[in-house]
Amino acid sequence: MSVALCAGAAKATTFDVDIVHSHIAFFIDHLGFSKVIGTANDFSGSFEFDAAKPESSTLNVTVKVAGLSTNSKQRDDDIQGADWFNATEFPDITFVGKDFKKVDDKTGTIAGDLTIAGVTKPTTLNVTFNKEGQNPWDKSHVVGFSARTTVKRSDFGMKAAQGMIGDDVDLYIEVEGRGR
Question: Can you give the pTM of this predicted structure?
Answer without folding.
Answer: 0.91
